[in-house]
Amino acid sequence: MSGDDILAPRAGVIGWPVQHSRSPRLHGYWLKQYGLPGRYDLLPLPPEDLGGFLQELKRSGQAENFRGVNVTIPHKQAVLPFLDEIDHAAKRIGAANTLILREDGSLFGQNTDGYGFLQNLRESQPQWQPSAGPGLVLGAGGSARAICVALLDAGLPALTIINRSPERAEALAKALDDPRVSIGAWEDRADLLEGAGLLVNTTSLGMSGQPALDIALDALPIQALVTDIVYAPLETGLLAAARARGNLVVDGLGMLLHQGRPGFAAWFGQWPEVTPGLREAVLAD
Question: What letters, b where the CB count within 10 A reaches 16 and e where it falls short, cover 180-214?
């Protein structure tokens, strides 16, 4: 067989826009580190083309050795009707971020965002346990939903959702349908920190180019863990303030890195590790 007949495994990330994604840098690093043949590409895909792309992937993807794709905004929910099977997390969250093309041409969908979030906390601060105390989640978007599901499944005793738009917080709490979940008013966010064991920011506040997150941490117990899913900047104002007062902190980059591991393993046959070298490579300009 000629070299052209032996296609390297292929994967990529679909989104609109998608140029900002760091996933090619992440998967490219792993392919090089483990000496594996393979390609991982940016795949810009407007919403109106999503169905056609997925149908074509199922029809002819195997012939091109296409193994699957990551899914980012705005397609995470829209892909679900096109999938043949989804995992427990994707079903509960109502969104998929990792698609695996099986040998029979069917598409299996996963949501690895919650996995990535928890692995980041556990590896960065192994002494933290979900049972340590109640959690507060700022924000009620797709990432918040994945994180809430992961925390509840991990045994968090109580969870309060606080969002600038109370309607979105109410909708998320209703969807989670768990007696441990409550809603807090945005204007009461500082007071609600009392007794918390975990504070999670899933909003864009504090991200480069966005307004700062305005929250006083005085009521937050010193033993509480503070994490921000923002990774640009790597240390947000929230993390800097929490670190200065003695709280354990975890930045958001690890969530991105860990959520990519299950997909890479399925597509390229190697369970990858998150290392300091990987962090540097993904953050490099």
Answer: bbeebeeeebeebbeebbbbbbbbebbbeeeeebe
